[in-house]
Amino acid sequence: MSLTEQTAILQKYLDLDQRGAVIAEYVWIDGSGNTRSKGRTLKGKITSVDQLPEWNFDGSSTGQAPGHDSDVYLKPVAFYPDPFRKGDNVIVLAECWNNDGTPNKFNHRHEAAKLFEAHKDAEVWFGLEQEYTLFDHEDHVYAWPKGGFPAPQGPYYCGVGAGKVYARDLIEAHYRACLYAGITISGINAEVMPSQWEFQVGPCTGIAMGDELWMARYLLARVAEEFGIKISLHPKPLKGDWNGAGCHTNVSTKAMRQPGGMKHIEEAIQKLSKRHAEHIRLYGADNDMRLTGRHETASMSTFSSGVANRGASIRIPRSVSKEGYGYFEDRRPASNIDPYLVTGIICETVCGAIDDADMTKEYERESA
Ligand code: ADP
Ligand code: MN
Ligand code: MN
Ligand code: MN
Predict the structure, then answer these.
(1) What pLDDT, on a 0 to 100 scale, did the predictor assign at position 200?
(2) DSSP single-letter state for residue 8
(3) Rounded average pLDDT over 259-283
(4) How confident is the model at residue 295 (pLDDT cuts 50, 70, 90)?
(5) CA–CA gap between residue 219 and residue 216 (Å, rounded)
(6) DSSP 291-360
(7) Taking every annotated instance into account, which residue ranges of this chain make up the domain GS beta-grasp (predicted)?
(8) How far is the CA of 162 from the centre of ligand 1 (A)?
(9) Alpha-carbon distance 53 to 248, whole Å?
(10) pLDDT class for 93, splitting at 50, 70, 90?
(11) Up-side HSE of residue 64: CA atoms within 13 Å toward CB?
(12) Who has greater pLDDT, 58 or 335?
């Protein structure tokens, strides 16, 4: 059967009336930094998150629970219009909880949310730059010559034209899917290494940053599935003279965004400099392969900051320095971060620790 014929058959069923039922696709974060999802039928249009029932799954199949106590509970925290099923159908983001009433060890949202709630008057905004790499079915970098390498880096960043840019159709489809779902996607660009791309989400306030980035990653995996392309979030997918992949984290508080804000930006950088090692532990696995001091990165062992300096841990954009207020960019986080860990510890460091949350302990909880 041809693809056209198959599409026509599927379309007959997609056109059927759902008779008032809504399909909710529940998404969660598994034990290896990927998303998983499953669907269920609900009655009627969803207008608030408390209309969404709790659910559960077999955590022993996702590396999130032992076989003898395998139920992991899904607590809905946000929902988005579903760009695949459309209509009143929704995609639901859920936190994972254990049977004994404790957050699952890969649920880092719970602690981070406490920090953002305690510091809500600071109005912390984030903007994340998610870099990622495309691979084909045989695990070759997508569209690279088989058994060889493309010409060295140079023409690919924001590249235009055949041989300089790959999979623009996939990137465009993902961009539109994010807009449909109400994700605060602020842009896209082709990266320095061919078949490496970036999308930006933000500014988003507090916990919504992690929620929206995870949802944007889920949408990317789903769209790429249709194109038969694999998405890698590894920070150094290819050894050698090829750029790694990061997740630059742009940060501001209300005070930083107002005239005179530079003083607050400098204070924040001062605080970050004292906890470099603690931050690095939460800034992604294999980040040592990326933070070498080359390829527009700072070395992992030292903390540095500077205006317009893409070789520093923290960069103050030139425009921010000129105006005297705005935001700063933490360039250390890797592409494979859990954004809840990174935004959570930045909030803790910049706005102050609270008694009932400790982001540093989250690392130990996950590795326990
Ligand atoms: P770069 O020049 O580092 O490539 P990008 O344009 O890719 O920067 O990304 C900048 C990010 O900063 C965007 O996600 C944007 O939403 C975010 N951003 C802009 N202003 C602020 C702010 N005041 N606070 C936090 N994030 C911000
Ligand atoms: Mn960028
Ligand atoms: Mn980039
Ligand atoms: Mn950046």
Answers:
(1) 98
(2) H
(3) 97
(4) confident
(5) 5
(6) -BS-SS--BTTS--EEET-TTSSEEE-HHHHHHT-S-EEE---BTT--HHHHHHHHHHHHH--BTTB-HH
(7) 22-101
(8) 29
(9) 35
(10) very high
(11) 30
(12) 335
Task: For residue 186, report the distance from its CA to the centre of ligand 4, in Å.
Answer: 13
Contacts of 270 (CB under 8 A, 6+ apart): none
Ligand nearest to the CA of 255: 1
Question: How remote is the CA of residue 9 from the centroid of ligand 2, in Å?
Answer: 41
Of 75, 90, 339, nearest in space to 201 by CA:
339
Q: What's the pLDDT at 363? A: 84
Ligand 3 centroid to 334 CA: how many Å? 11
Exposed/middle/buried for 354, CB within 10 Å: 0-12, 13-18, 19+? middle
Of the candidates 113, 218, 285, 345, the one whose C-alpha atom is nearest the C-alpha of residue 330 is 345
Protein residues whose CB sits closer than 6 Å to any atom of ligand 1: 125-127, 129, 186, 200, 202-203, 248, 250-252, 257, 326-327, 329
Q: For residue 170, what are the CA distances in angstroms to 74, 146, 186, 216, 275?
A: 30, 21, 17, 14, 39
272: how many CB neighbours lie within 10 A of its CB? Answer: 23
Among 131, 186, 258, residue to substitute to test ligand 1 (most atoms within 8 Å of Cβ): 186
Q: Where are the alpha helices (DSSP H) in 159-253?
A: 168-181, 208-227
Q: Which domains, ranges and CATH numbers included, belong to the chain?
A: 20-104 (3.10.20.70), 116-367 (3.30.590.10)
Amino acid making up residue 50: D
Residue with tokens 């994700």: 183
Q: Residue 365: what pLDDT?
A: 85
